[in-house]
Amino acid sequence: MAANKKILMLPGDGIGVEVMGEVKRLLDWMDRKRQVSFDVSERRIGGIAIDTDGVPITDATIAEGRSADAILLGAVGGPKWDNVAFDIRPEAGLLKIRKDLGLFANLRPALVFEALADASTLKRELVAGLDILILRELTGGAYFGEPRGITTLSDGTRKGINTIVYTSPEVHRIARVAFDLARKRGRRVCSIDKANVLECTKMWREEVIKIHAAEYKDVELSHMLVDNAAMQLVRNPKQFDVIVTENMFGDILSDCAAMLTGSLGMLPSASLGAVDPATGRRNALYEPVHGTAPDIAGQNKANPLAMILSFAMMLRYSFDMGEDADRVETAVNKVLDAGLRTGDIMQPGRKLVSTTEMGQAIVAEIDRLAR
Ligand code: IPM
Ligand code: MG
Q1: Would you say the CB of residue 91 lies under 6 angstroms from ligand 1?
Q2: Which ligand 1 atom is at minimum distance from the Cα of 251?
């Protein structure tokens, strides 16, 4: 196999560093046992970059991300940087790399592993076997819309503005990703909006309908208002297959969906750019949905599984290594079946393990599966 797949690693802050350490363990195993070596470089993002470089991500790092085949990201932020200027806060680094690299399609699969069906705060029968995919538009909406900002009027009143904005091509491209993904799954898409109040999302709904009618009649399309969707996600989550929605709704609904799986520490994600028609390649960034968990950072307690599952998504989507991705996911299943748990998914009678012990167990299982 060609040995020049380029990965840029951005561990970031807090537990981001620790969970990335477990991916390094996997990369090391792939190198030794599968003779697949990646060309890996590591850079700073978030608070650590602010401390060292004065900005949450440098232009050099963005450029390196652009030339990499895939980016692996841990998490950014923490209380230490609560008071830095808003435009250079840790999160701004993450938003910049998403925007600059055109990573508009954010896949957040919420999958309940059988062994964790009881770890959810919802009843087992509601979540057992759950397999839904939230597709979040990631480079538009209120996150990037102009005008934005905080101003003070002449009478001293303060005014804060953000703008939810989408154009029809932005809706078309995310809708196509949703329908294409649905064709490989349950062939159902639910588009979520607030079309009864927000014009922007009324347009979103109309444009999704157009793309569906013109190109994807074989996929079932439905629409739901976001408030109802939040309720349906905890009432009967298995009614969904693929959910597609705008940036901010997707941010909120995906945290909600994460809890269905037992813990935020279980949810991976992939952020993909458009496919370059000339080369067939696309920019791609893989990261867990969870944050930096300052309360447990540096204590070897974090759950590395969302990061490890993000690594599996990278193998599948950026390197077409489906078999290796399957092996990682099977190993996660087996290790959970064997009763190993980090604190966030701990249940009575199971074995509490550290971040590194969980990573070691996954590698040992992958090693067994590969024999
Ligand atoms: C996420 C996070 C980010 C977002 C933050 C850290 C900027 O919550 O990826 O869901 O809001 O997109
Ligand atoms: Mg979020």
Answers
A1: yes
A2: 10
The structure's pTM equals 0.95
**What pLDDT, on the 0 to 100 scale, is given for residue 262?**
85
User: Can you tell me whether residue 164 is helix, strand or coil?
Assistant: coil
Task: Provide the greatest CA pair distance for the chain.
Answer: 74
Res 119: pLDDT = 86
- Can you tell me whether residue 244 is helix, strand or coil? strand
Nearest CA to ligand 1 atom 5: 91
Q: Which residues pair with 70 in a beta bridge?
A: 7
Both tokens of 19, joined, read 């969970």
- Under-70 pLDDT residues of the chain: 1-3
Do 267 and 290 meet the contact criterion of CB atoms below 8 Å apart? yes
Helix ranges (DSSP H) in the chain: 15-33, 47-53, 59-67, 90-100, 124-127, 168-183, 199-215, 226-235, 247-260, 305-317, 322-337, 355-370
- Domains along the chain with CATH numbers: 1-104+273-371 (3.40.718.10), 114-271 (3.40.718.10)
Question: What per-residue confidence (pLDDT) applies to 311?
Answer: 98
Query: In the annotation, is 82 catalytic?
Result: no
Q: Which of 100, 118, 180, 255 is catalytic?
A: 255
Other residues' Cβ atoms within 10 Å of the Cβ of residue 281: 11
Active-site option among 13, 251, 324, 344: 251
CA 129, 132, 135 angle in degrees (round to 5)?
165
Which residue in 69, 143, 193, 301 is the catalytic one? 143
Question: Which pLDDT value is given to residue 1?
Answer: 45
Beta bridge pairs of residue 337: none
Q: Ligand 1 atom closest to Cα of 255?
A: 10
Name the token pair of 168.
């029809």
Element (H or E) spanning 267, and its range?
A: none
Question: pLDDT at position 352, please?
Answer: 98
- Shortest-distance atom of ligand 1 to CA 248: 11
Q: Ligand 1 center to residue 253 CA distance, Å?
A: 12
Contacts for 265 with CB less than 8 Å, ≥ 6 apart: 288, 290, 302, 303, 305, 306, 342, 344, 345
